[in-house]
Structures are given as C-alpha cells and as structure tokens.
Design brief:
Pfam families: Glyco_hydro_1 (PF00232). This is Beta-glucosidase. One of its GO terms (molecular function) is beta-glucosidase activity. Belongs to the glycosyl hydrolase 1 family. This protein is α/β, with parallel strands linked by helices. Helices cover 39% and strands 14% of the residues. An 8-stranded parallel β-barrel has the order 1-4-5-6-7-9-13-14, surrounded by 4 helices. A two-stranded antiparallel ribbon has the order 2-3. It has a two-stranded parallel ribbon with strand order 8-10. A hairpin with an 8-residue loop joins strand 2 and strand 3. The longest helix is centred in the middle third of the chain and has 25 residues. The two termini are 16 Å apart.
Length: 466
C-alpha cells in the first residue's frame, strides 16, 4: 500500500469563500468583504468599504457558518480524515487591535472543531487565508508596518491557547508567495511597488517565525507549517536562456519557502535586493527569530503548471499567473488552467529535494461548470478524471520516490466562491450548493458523482481509483 496508515485524506475551504455571515456575531470587516464580483465581471474589485448596490460574494458565500454541522457530516460521510479550513481573523479581533478577543467568534470555531472531532476529522487550520482584517490596512498600512507582526502574534497566542487539544496542524499564511503578485489579496497591502511588497513579506516571515516558536511553547505537539501557492514551471525549450529564465522565475516564487524553511534569505535574493536598491527595515534580533522559527512542514496548492522562458512577462489573468507562454502538450480547464498531473510528482520531488521537510498537498482540484440533471443528479466525470490522474502521480511520488507526504485535501471539497473571480459557477466541490453568481438560491446541499468516488478512494486508502 502506497499511502501510510493515518494518511490525511480530506478536503479544503477558506472562511472568506464559504462562511458568509460577514458581520454576524461581532465579526469585523476583512479584505475579502470589500471585494466585488459576479457573473458580469472577471476581476474582483477592491472598493475599500462596503458600498450599496454592489455585490460582495463573501457576505453570503455558501453560508457554511450556518450549515457547518450539515457540511461536516457530509465530509464524514465521505470518510474525511482531515478538514483544511481557516479561521477568520476579523471574527476573533474585529478591529484588529482589540484589547480582548470576540468571544462569539472563538465559540464558533470551538463548535466547528468539536464537530470535526466528533467524526474523527483532524482540523488543519490556516491562520490567515486571504482574510486580513480591513482595520489592519486602514489603521496601520497592513503588513508594510511592523505593527502587523505584533497583532498577528497576539491573534496566534489567542487561538493557540483556545484550541490547544483540538487542533494539531496549523498553517501560518495561505499562499504566502502571492505577496509578489497580488499583495492586496495576500495581505491587505495596497502598494504594488517591489520595496513595499518585500517589506510586507519580511514582516510576514517574522510573524510566522514568532508564531512557530510560540506555538511550540504552548503545545509541543503542534505541527506548524507554511503554505506555498503552487507555482511550478517548465522551461520553454532546451535553449540555455530559457532554462536560466525558468530558474529565475522559480527562485522568485521559492524564495518564500527558502526563508521559512531555512531561516535566512538566500544569496540570490540578497543580490537581487542590492541591484534593485531594496532595503528592508529590520530590528536587532530579527535574524535569530527567522532561524529559530522555521516551519515543521510544507503545505502547498497545486492546480496547473506554467511555462517560463527568456521572454517571460508576468501578468495576472483570471485569478492565476500568465507568463506569456503556453504549453502545447497539455489540455486546459474551462477557465484556461493547464491540466498537468505529472507536474504534481515533479513538484513533490522538487520541494522535498530542496528542503527535506514533510509535505502536505492542501489544495488540488478542478474548477468547472456543473449541470444539475432533472432527477437532481450531478455527473462530473471530468472532476473524477482530474483527481484520479493527480492522485496516481502523488502515489508514484510516495511509493517510488519515497516522498514523506502527510496528507491530501482537495479544493474545495464543497462548492465555494472562487477566490480569483468571485463566481459560484466555477465549482470545485464534490458537494453541490444551490447558489448562483449573485448569491441567489436555496443553499441546499447535494452529492455529486465525485462524492461517491472520493469516498471509495478514502476507504481504500488510495488503492481503488476506478
């Protein structure tokens, strides 16, 4: 059997994409709460405040806040061993710098974790997942300010102490490398210049390192990891210039892993800062903090691969990166994302070879438009084919390459609002939710064909993929 006993099969969501209840029980606004979307727009727009007459997908989302017991029961029916989710920071500290946390928010997650534990499901909790409190931006300039480090650590101390014994696995920042491409979504940072982005990233590194040290002190059983936004690329050709450019692209992304796994800035980044006149604001003792706060494991998302080469020009397109190159050997999803199962095995080997830390795949899935048949059934063979092909390559990485893989959580196990476009029609779930792009619907949950297929996969510990 390829996968070890206790392998963490499951699914993943994010609070801002599934919870809804955006100002219920004392929750404050976060960055996603001022992001518009809908079927008429491809790009999410930051309005800085909630404005009348505009649609904000996070306000209702799929009302996981009101349906979490039903949803977790469905996860348990599939046989989940793990549920990767996030805590909404503004639900705990609505004004970010509140003297005391919001008890109603803390109580909600107590109930969520208790429900998971009832079914033997291990929560894997992202501490900050594209839901930075809006007050952090408006009051302090978000992660460009050193103040954000202290506020984040206070938040971590609160939830570490509160949920000790209920949560073992923690991830500090979701897709932290997205600070380089989308600083607003990544951390509520309004500035787009490289100096600001790199200062914000530095403060997140410090905050994560402090959280790791604090977490281990509060509970030595805690396993605290990083989360890399899975950008992996192939060189455009065997032209040495293309290969060199591909290495540069991957270093731009993996430098985040370098710092969080090794505890220091790699030489290539130091030299890049010198050439670009980027000077980070630091304090005495920072080097020790980074060295002492390296993560226990690496988690990452994986949806597609890119192609990079000597003429690479990075741009954001439809919620993902566009390098200016395409891969003629790969098929694409309805949203233009390449489908590259073999790239997942390559990604697992690349990360383990570089860092020698245990790995966890915490996002993998296919966004597609599903059709509900007259009898209520939802046939999604395309999703099953996608997941099967990726699990087969994951299996090879474990069985043949010896990669220490802790778990695999599909994205999103239940239909949720798309982070990139704000749509509902771009569905990832194995559980269908009756909500449209404007937030209209019954919110009823129903099982897709992939629900029953994934249940069989988990029951067989990945052996039965038919």
């Amino acid at each position: 059997m390829a996968f070890p006993k206790g392998f963490l099969w499951g699914g993943a969501t994010a609070a801002n994409q599934c919870e809804g209840a955006y100002i219920i029980d004392g929750k404050g606004l976060n960055t996603s709460d001022v992001m518009t979307a809908g079927s008429a727009t491809k790009e999410r727009v930051n309005t800085r405040e909630v404005k009348e007459g505009l649609y904000y997908p996070s306000h209702k989302a799929v009302d996981h806040y009101g349906h979490f017991k039903e949803d977790i029961a469905l996860f348990a029916e599939m046989g989940f061993k793990a549920y990767r989710m996030s805590i909404n920071w503004a639900r705990i500290f609505p004004n970010v710098d509140d003297e005391t946390p919001n008890e109603a928010g803390l109580k909600h997650y107590d109930e969520v974790f208790d429900e998971c534990r009832k079914y033997g499901i291990e929560p894997v909790v992202t501490i900050s997942h594209y839901e930075t409190p809006l007050a952090l931006t408006e009051k302090h300039g978000s992660w460009t300010s050193r103040k954000a480090v202290d506020l984040f650590v206070k938040y971590c101390e609160t939830i570490f102490n509160r949920y000790k014994g209920k949560v073992k696995y923690w991830l500090t920042f979701n897709e932290i490398n997205c600070m380089s491409m989308n600083p607003w979504m990544s951390g509520g940072v309004l500035q787009e210049d490289e100096q600001s982005k790199m200062q914000a990233a530095y403060h997140q590194f410090l905050a994560s390192a402090k959280a790791v040290k604090l977490g281990h002190k509060i509970d030595p059983e805690f396993k605290i990891g990083m989360m890399y936004g899975g950008l992996f690329s192939h060189p455009n050709s065997c032209d040495p210039e293309d290969i060199e450019a591909n290495t540069e692209f991957m270093n731009k992304m993996l430098f985040y892993c370098d710092v969080m796994c090794r505890g220091y800035y790699p030489a290539y980044k130091v030299k890049e800062f010198e050439r670009s006149n980027i000077v980070l604001s630091k304090e005495a003792g920072d080097e020790e903090i980074l060295k002492e706060g390296t993560v226990d494991f690496i988690s990452f998302s994986y949806y597609f691969t890119l192609v990079a080469g000597k003429n690479t020009k990075l741009a954001m397109d439809c919620g993902s990166l566009d390098t200016g190159y395409s891969n003629p050997h790969l098929k694409k999803s309805d949203w233009g994302w390449t489908i590259d199962p073999k790239g997942l095995r390559h990604a697992l080997n690349l990360l383990y070879d570089r860092y020698q830390k245990p790995l966890m795949i915490v996002e993998n899935g296919l966004g597609a438009a599903d059709t509900v048949e007259e009898d209520g059934s939802i046939h999604d063979p395309y999703r099953i084919d996608y997941l099967r092909a990726h699990i087969e390559e994951m299996k090879k990485a474990v069985e043949i390459d010896g990669i220490p893989l802790l778990g695999y959580t599909t994205w999103g196990c239940i239909d949720i609002v798309s982070a990139g476009t704000g749509e509902m029609k771009k569905r990832y779930g194995m559980i269908y939710i009756d909500v449209d792009d404007e937030g209209n619907g019954t919110f009823a949950r129903s099982r897709k064909d992939s629900f029953y297929w994934y249940k069989k996969v988990i029951e067989s510990n990945g052996e039965d993929l038919a």
